[in-house]
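hey so i finaly got around to running the thing on Ubiquitin carboxyl-terminal hydrolase from Stegastes partitus. pasting the sequence first so u can double check i didnt mess up the copy paste, my clipboard has been acting weird all day
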Amino acid sequence: MADVGEVLMSVLSTIRVPKPGDRVHKDECALSFSSPESEGGLFVCMNSFLGFGSQYVDRHHARSGQRAYLHITRTCKAKEDDNNSGSGHPPKKKPTRLAIGIEGGFDVDQQQYEEDVKVVILPDRQEVTSDDLGAMPDVVRERVRYLVSFLAREILFSDSVSHTLQVQQWDGEVRQESRHAVDLKQLDNGVKIPPSGWRCEVCDLQENLWMNLTDGKVLCGRRYFDGTGGNNHALLHFQETGYPLAVKLGTITPDGADVYSYDEDDMVLDSKLPEHLSHFGIDMMTMEKTERTMTELEIAVNQRVGEWEVIQESGTTLRPLFGPGLTGMKNLGNSCYLNSVMQVLFTVPDFQSKYVSNIDKIIDEGDQIGIAPRMFKALVGRGHPEFSTNRQQDAQEFLLHFINMVERNCRSGANPSEAFRFLVEERIVCQQSQKAKYTQRVDYIVQLPVPMDQATNTEELQEAERRREEGDSSALTVRAQIPFTACMAALSEPEILTDFWSSAVQSKTTATKTTRFASFPDHLVIQIKKFTFGLDWVPKKLDVSIDVPDTLDLSSLRATGQQPGEELLPEVAPPPLMTPDVEVKAPVLDDSTVSQLCEMGFPLEACRKAVYYTGNTGIDAAMNWIMGHMDDPDFSAPLVLPGCSSGAGTTPTESLCEEHLATIVSMGFSRDQATKALRATSNVLDRAVDWIFSHLDDLESMDVSEGGRSAAESEGGREPPPGPRVRDGPGKYELFAFISHMGTSTMCGHYVCHIKKDQQWVIFNDQKVCASEKPPKDLGYLYFYRRVAE
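ok and heres what it spat out for the 3d tokens, dont ask me to read them lol
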């Protein structure tokens, strides 16, 4: 082996010092999920700062020519048993902050490690030790030792990618200073608030009371989804007066209080709170806490006994599992939704064969430490307003987001999302003429409604509600029992459309809409629509138990198409609402309102129509329009102005950005191709470019004219391009996985998944993988079925 001094001198010129902004990948291999805790440790290139596992570092050396690597290995320290009452250590403290991985928050059970760091020179993996440096000639020893130790230290103490992305912890209690705090208007109305004995000035409620910091009105808070809380009088007062800030009485202490900004719709900080309270005779320094803060209430709700314990199978000793397909995924701070979805997807053969050449290699030996998908989370969330953050997300929305990414990047090869893709047929029958209209659309998820009026334990629910209203704190929580057959009946029964424009009678009339499967996918995803809005537009979650079956036969829901002797509605457009000589201009829409509606999960075009038809009057009016038109057959159809021509499935050309069109045309594509790309990607330039390059094989057929027909079709040539490719087969399925949610809404809580492997149910709770003793199939949120052979 070569002299270590000579080797070091030969590689010094290739070693770089990390600069501000350099991304140092010292926590995870760039080509696998290996980490410093993995066997062989992690090798960080001292030039590019990319990290590689032991099995991939030689490959990087061969391709890049780099030889100097910082070798980092970590071994677990012995862990003391926190539950050992004889250990002399106090028990774990209960969480006091709505946070993960920080002081006072929920414990993420972080492991402590001993770290060993050395410089390694490839290809012989020659280690440079302190003894090697000491044996070098004096003339070079000091210089080399200083340089090597300095460079290693700089790399080791540079912020890692995971730290830069801030995915190690999450704090849901971080509050911002209210913009109203500094210059808050306070009325000199003589109001003085006593230190106790408060009541709502409208309904005499004695709890959940808020004092408005402008006029001193004491009023009750919002009504919660379960009927408790208040009667919304503080909110109504803000809507009448516009006075923005209120403090929760009973939470005032010398350290602060709960302050809510109705205008900013969030808990906030008030740096002048002592002064604002003193205005109404309240001495903050003498006040004592008598009510739970909003954080304490949220923690209590998130830890409610029943749902959390049952879904996580707490209270039973679960047997840990290891091996192929049984590797856990570490929670990076509210990443449980991603972990659960990806665990299920990679049990589907299409995804395994597409993305994992040898899935058996992704295993853990010995103790289950799990993998930390930091770079994967950063990749799939890049540019997305929600999935790029550390906030909790809806697993169903993430599943669709990931499928959309797969669709955009698999045009030229195998597309694993085809396993979930199916066609839906909608049949609308005009009740006056009895003529029908058939349309088809692509979908990936069946959204199953929850008919609460079909609960089989109505008497128990009513009794629990009565006891709650009487203030009986000992009343047990009763979960509604909903038959799965009732959910399926609600899905398949005809909808009544009361404002349907019939081309047969040339007027608005009543119609019925029936939805059926035009094809059955290989794998069927069913979403239980547990999340909804209350009458006050506050999101809530239905606490229900549904007897979801292990096997499912949907054959009776297959679409039949046009019936013998059935007449179709004429293809005639509705009459224009404006005279032809009136110039129609593109609508000027409030982008912020459109974005807020889209973030709630509504289709883009529906949001645009809501803002347009309510005249840009705000989020409340637009939301009311959406809730009143969700059953419209054209709810998600593009916004088309009277007098504007628009091809089927497109938006008006006027709504597209001319600058984006010009950019794509300058790349060598036709205007029609650029138009279709922008329409397919909601007018987002980066996505449109990605989309058009993913459709190179179909460029000829996607040359759409202004009238919506292809050039070949207009010339009587080829047939129009075929529709989306779907698989079809029998509608008989078996359950193989389900994802469950714990908490009050998709914005908080926790996700786990259960997957059936070799006839054994397995629970994946982030990095913990165990044999399931009693899978809670009745409490799931997303259910995954696979087709069974007849």
